[in-house]
Amino acid sequence: MPNLWVDADACPRIAREIIVRAAERTATPTTFVANHQVPLPASKWVKALSVSHGFDAADDEIVERIQPGDLLVTSDLPLALAAIERGASVMTSRGEALNESNIRARVQMRDFMDTMRASGEHTGGPKGYSDVDRREFANALDRWLAKNT
To answer: Where does the source fall among the domains of life (predicted)?
Structure first.
């Protein structure tokens, strides 16, 4: 049985609720990893793992524990790349699949945008989490769980 890992530091509350319901419904072991306490309901299938407050401590913990066939929910592109390299599936909290065919280009674009911001360019941030994002994520998660559990 694959495990579901969640990079909980930046996971929207709505996505967190979708994940908890899906984990309960499908009896999928799910771990929310963060450097702070993540409020979660009592559950046999869902747990929180709090790590130290160091830079990338949650990411490092996920990379250490994730196994081939597991699913990681994250929007952190370097973390996604590391998980893909370990044989895991990755999707964002908007339901976008990240994989070997698209992750390197996404990381390069992220690095480029970081360079632009460092030079003083205002590039804007991510758009807000919409009802469409919620629906796309819920559908993508359901499809992955139906196929892999």
So the answer is: Bacteria
DSSP secondary-structure letter at 30? E
CA-nearest of 74, 106, 92, 105 to 140 is: 92
Provide the residue ranges of all domains of the chain, joining segments of one domain with +: 4-148
* Residue of 15, 69, 72, 71 lying closest to 38 (CA atoms): 15
CATH architecture for segment(s) 4-148: 3-Layer(aba) Sandwich (3.40)
- Separation between Cα atoms, residue 102 and residue 84, nearest integer Å: 11
* pLDDT confidence bin for 10, thresholds 50/70/90: confident
d(CA 22, CA 138): 9
Give the 3-state secondary structure of residue 48: strand
Instruction: Give the C-alpha separation, 101 to 17, whole Å.
Output: 29
8 A C-beta contact, residue 84 and residue 74:
no
Helix (H) or strand (E) holding 5: strand 4-7
